[in-house]
């Protein structure tokens, strides 16, 4: 039984192919073949491969942006906010793995307004995360380390989590959240 619209089905199949082969290596024919249809028929539902990529990436980018907005509105400590952001990254990893792969690996193939919108969202997200880290340093909740190093360390780990998570047999999400928060905030010593 099929669920969702034909366009959603096309986006889903394209996301799997983009994750497997990369955006540049996937053609409209590849997508059509995976769907059991002719490439020309795809254009009845989408304008092209660029629309598929933008749909995937922007869906995930909006999830991150929405999560950050929720965290920023809360009256909680910087450490609690960072914990929530780590958990949001984990939830997005689990629920949007193909879109996250496209966001991480293929965002630079976005064009025009989609690229501008994505870059603006990413820069805003990182700036907000950096401000939370700086607030944590100022309140002495976080050790006085360079905020850029902290941000890079956290985001590098979180952005590639989907690769590790997939290889590890889908570890229980609650355990992953608890342990990732502990390791990223408290280290291993």
Automatic annotation (TrEMBL):
GO terms for molecular function: DNA binding. The keyword DNA-binding applies. Residues 27-46 bind DNA. Signal peptide: none annotated. Gene3D superfamilies: Homeodomain-like, Tetracycline Repressor, domain 2. Residues 4-64 form the HTH tetR-type domain. PANTHER family: ACREF/ENVCD OPERON REPRESSOR-RELATED, ACREF_ENVCD OPERON REPRESSOR-RELATED. This is TetR family transcriptional regulator.
